[in-house]
Amino acid sequence: EKRVLGFDAWLQKQGYPSFCKVVMENGLAKLEIIVDAVTGLPRVFAVEAWIEFCIGMMTGDVEKGGCRELRANTELYATALHGRSQAEVQMPLEKKGKFGWGPYKDDPFKLQSIQQYATALRIWVKEELRRWPGVNVANPMYDGWTAAVMKYVQSELPVARVEKRLPPALTTGVFNEMIKHIDPTSQREMSAGLYLEGGTVHGDRAHDYFLLDRKNVRKLAPTDDDPDQKPGVMISHESTKNNKRREERHKGLACPTWCNQEVAFTEDGQLDAKKMCGACLTYHLQDMVDKSLAGATEETLASLPVFVDIKEVADLPAGSNLVRCETADRIGTPGDCVCLLTAAELADGYGYDGTVPFEVDGEDVFPPRRGTYFEVPKSGKAIRAWAHYAASSEIACAASASATSSNRRRSAVAAIATASSYFAAAACSDADCARAASAALASMQACRQALKAADAARPERRDSATRASDSPRSASRSSRLATATSCSASSLRSAASRAASTRCTAASS
Question: Where is the composition biased (Low complexity) (predicted)?
Fold first, then answer.
């Protein structure tokens, strides 16, 4: 209705008669078609008016942001701030661009904007004319000239994407840098790495990965029958948003020529992006899931989704739904604020949705909704399928943030190695040099002890979805670790400089 009202306001500026009016009902504004006082019939706009409006949108005569005079009317548009109208706040004259107001005020209208106006006018006029059955009044948006104009507009205006408006794409280089900082022991971070790699290569939708099971992923390798087969992974999507027939669509994720076709690690235990690719994460991730779900049968593991969150049944967050397995296969007791369901109850629509409270110690509790988990038989664990870019971005950011302390520690270890080389070169028979070397060695040993103490006080890596800053205690421990590590690194640098001067003295002697 706002598009129709804006179109009507523009027509009146060009000298055309108005065809709609605003009627207040129960304090709400409603748009109705005007009844002509002479003919007694509903009044519609002329086809020429729509053609002129299309030309105005293409040339810039129609301003972006709507009609400023209409948005200055506080009875039709809500007051923006401190009693000022939307025209004063959002459409000031000093901020007017070449084509009007808004984030793209200096760019002309795109084809989609004209099509939205055409759709709004066609539907609104059709619905209004239904209130006048038997009246011979034609909808101008179904006129042949209207169709011809829209065809001309489609041929003149571009429909391609505007590259400068698109978000930056995830490149292979960025992915390799992310792999370097993924925690190899975190199943959640490994899942995010595989998810982002598949999305980068294939461009699949989140819907595809949400329905992807382990049986739909198989490893490819050269064989005697097919020696030309490239190594990698074959992903077969059975059901996607654009594949309603549930036909398998195979997509390969090949290993590059430099890949070792297996997960490789660096000396400090991180993933080695120079010797492995994203396809190698697939089976390493499955092995991690198998170890987490120890006790589950092979049949159960084969039917699991590829991307899952795993939690202990006893550690499920409050507000979760838990679909329980058979009684004989249950291990662990969930908390008080977890809604227990059977598969049949879940299919019937039962579950906690935040409207009915849990009763704990005689009090009603409304925890936030935490999703639905499914208990894995004989494992004591519950899983939940996930596949969306919001979670992957959060996990990737958490992995990058956690790499800060790791990089700081690696720099300290590198300083130890550098200082050790200086100490070896500083060995000499001179007593002063020997005393200086002994003092430097004692300083290095003190630094090593400080690093060990920092490692002992270092909190275990938490799940990536939970930020360390969520807990004041964890944040304070992290700050103490960072302080201890930075102090150790500075001490090592001073020790290395003293060792260097000792080496120079020994050389001159």
Answer: 466-509
Calculate mean pLDDT across residues 382-387. Answer: 85
Provide the residue type at 368 as one letter: P
Average pLDDT, the chain: 75
Higher pLDDT, 460 or 468: 460
Question: Tell me, what amino acid is at 431?
Answer: A
Reading the block at residue 339, the tokens are 């809604």
DSSP 8-state secondary structure symbol assigned to residue 107:
S
> Which H or E run includes 23?
strand 20-25
Compute the half-sphere exposure of residue 244: CA atoms within 13 Å on the CB side of its CA: 0
Nearest to 464 by CA among 386, 407, 408: 386
Residue among 395, 367, 221 at smallest CA distance from 307: 395
Task: Tell me how long the chain is.
Answer: 509
Q: Are 413 and 406 in contact (CB under 8 A)?
A: no
3-state secondary structure of 114: helix
- pLDDT level of residue 5 (50, 70, 90 thresholds): very high
What spatial distance separates the first Cα and last Cα of the chain, rounded to whole Å?
A: 93
98: CB partners within 8 A, 6+ apart: 60, 105, 106
